[in-house]
Amino acid sequence: MKLLSVILLLIVNLYANESISSFDQSKKLLRDIYKDHQVTFYANCKYNYKDKNNMIDKSSCGYVPRNAYTKSGKKNERANRIEWEHIIPAENFGRQFACWREGDEQCVDSKGKAYKGRKCCSKVNQQFKYMEADLHNLVPAIGELNADRSNFRFAIIEGEEGRYGNNIDFEVDFKARRAEPKEDIRGNIARTYFYFEEQYKMRISKQERQLFKTWDKLDPVDGWEIERNKRIEKIQGNKNQFIK
Description:
This protein is mainly alpha-helical. Helices cover 40% and strands 9% of the residues. The protein has one domain. The strands form 3 sheets. Strands 5-7-6 form a 3-stranded mixed beta sheet, with no helix packed on it. The protein has a two-stranded antiparallel sheet with strand order 1-2.
């Protein structure tokens, strides 16, 4: 029985990220992976990293920022830049670790104050670092949409408010803490969740699994998803086996 457990662990590790443990490193690698496919995940906007002041081509997708300015009156810079979004929020897989929930003796700042959560796990837990940096879970997103999605779960939201312009099919219900993505990426999202469930033993609720099974069927794998999977496997050393 003990031998079987060891074998199963080796199989899991074979298909999980064990080569990249820095989120900052992942962001650099992703720029190269997406170099000839610079299109945002949620809004399908073109972007260009070379234009630091205006990365996002809003005219390419009809994106209209929900907020031109922050609450403090400053220009909303996140509406003009690309951020690497975790399809599965760090909190979803981070809360399974004690460092997220309780902290760690190493997680104390210069003033002697203890801290926990993502900052602590990124410092002390190697498995969390691998999960946080896993390229399969990272996509380019407009900063404002990344901020609004936050750590909300995906769901179907009734009604279309058009918060980001009439052409952007991305909805957020701030009260219910839910986000609804456009139809042609729902399968991508589902297959990412299945990958994390399989390789990292992350729990998915029965309701979510049913939703993702439906999304997986209605939005089959496309050419870019296959190519992206190949590029990530070449760099990270493993593939998402649910992309077939």
